[in-house]
Design goal:
single chain, 366 residues, alpha/beta, ten-stranded mixed β-sheet, 15% strand, PNPLA domain-containing protein, Acyl_Trfase/lysoPLipase
């Protein structure tokens, strides 16, 4: 039996922990050359709260092993927890950075009666544990160019008063249901990135994208803005170097990041789900699909349904776990740690696929 037949038999006997979906050009390139680290020039990181720490093992396999085999300049573009994941990896290294993020996030404590200001303060303290003293490593990393996505609020979305904010959100939902660009009346995209290195830019798509320099004196604020969920957290103001205004979670526009990446090789996307939802408000619009041209070079790697069902709650960690009835702090921490430990199965399987280059046996069309 040859290696390919052997791998096929193994995959049939042991259900895969991974889903691998590929765009058309990515598929053609892998069929021709296999999946090689030298091909990878862009890595996106989605919004999604603690789901981001639920793929720790995959992140470590990709950043600490696979990409280290051939270093080159790469753009990491993150929204919300995606930007925090990447900042921690760049600041501390892949293994320590992912473990530090998971440890800090897992041991947070929230309850239902907390105010948005209190939640924001707790999250800022966590962020400081990730980036304080590591600003130079993050901003001047020789291999990775950090690109942070946020949103500049417009109209009533600038307010943290519940009635005004609720009115704005209803307006966004209605406008977005007509078309994504219609919601630009309430929010504009912001891209913050270091001034050195290849700059990520994109054609106008209706969101009046603004660009700012990511610097030591505003890195923390831009990362906070990128993760500041309306209602749950307060908006971020007075960011050094930015236009006056209130800045919020980048996932509102770019939830799973459906952008024109300008890749000349492979967009390697470690994700926590097997599909791409462009903006947070698109979750309720099942008919809205990602732009196939944007994802033409994407290799989307995510947990399989079999893997998810094997976890204690049948899914990855979730922000709602903090307030789930009957799930106390100690039990939640135990469950999250188990999920994180199990995620290393995904990393091991990915590296085995890289070693044997049997991606054609497992990849499907994105």
């Amino acid at each position: 039996m040859d290696d390919k037949s052997s791998m096929t038999q193994i995959l049939k006997r042991f259900p895969s922990s991974l889903n691998i979906k590929v765009g058309k050009q990515a598929k053609a390139l892998i069929q021709k050359e296999g999946l090689r680290p030298a091909q990878v020039d862009v890595i996106p990181g989605a919004a999604g709260g603690p789901k981001g720490i639920g793929i720790q093992g995959l992140d470590q396999a990709i950043f600490a092993d696979f990409l280290e085999r051939e270093k080159r300049p790469r753009t990491v573009i993150g929204s919300s927890i995606g930007s925090w994941r990447f900042a921690s990896i760049l600041g501390w290294g892949a293994k320590q950075g992912t473990e530090r993020l998971a440890e800090l996030y897992t041991h947070l404590y929230f309850h239902k009666k907390m105010t948005a200001l209190e939640v924001s303060q707790i999250c800022r303290e966590m962020l400081q544990g990730l980036v304080r003293g590591k600003e130079d490593q993050i901003l001047q990393h020789p291999d990775y160019h950090l690109t942070v996505l946020a949103v500049k609020s417009q109209k009533l979305l600038q307010s943290d008063q519940k009635l005004a904010l609720a009115t704005a959100i209803l307006g966004v939902i209605g406008a977005n249901a007509i078309s994504r660009p219609k919601s630009a009346a309430f929010m504009q995209r912001v891209i913050a990135q270091p001034e050195q290195g290849t700059q990520f830019s994109m054609p106008q798509d209706g969101f009046n994208t603004q660009y700012y320099a990511l610097q030591e004196n505003n890195l923390e604020d831009w990362l906070m803005a990128s993760a500041s969920i309306p209602f749950a957290m307060t908006g971020i103001s007075n960011i050094v170097g930015a236009e006056n205004g209130v800045y919020r979670d980048g996932g509102l526009i770019d939830y799973h990041i459906d952008l024109p990446y300008q890749s000349k090789g492979i967009v390697l996307y470690p994700h926590f789900t097997d599909h791409i939802t462009a903006g947070w408000f698109d979750k309720m619009l099942k008919w809205r699909k990602p732009n196939s041209v944007h994802q033409d070079r994407t290799v989307l790697i995510s947990p399989s349904e079999t893997f998810l069902q094997s976890l204690p709650m049948g899914r990855l960690p979730d922000r709602n776990d903090f307030v789930v009835k009957g799930l106390d702090q100690n039990k939640r921490i135990q469950i999250w740690k188990q999920c994180i430990a199990e995620s290393h199965r995904m990393g091991d399987e990915f590296l085995e696929l890289v070693e044997k280059q049997h991606f054609e046996d497992v990849m499907t069309d994105l």
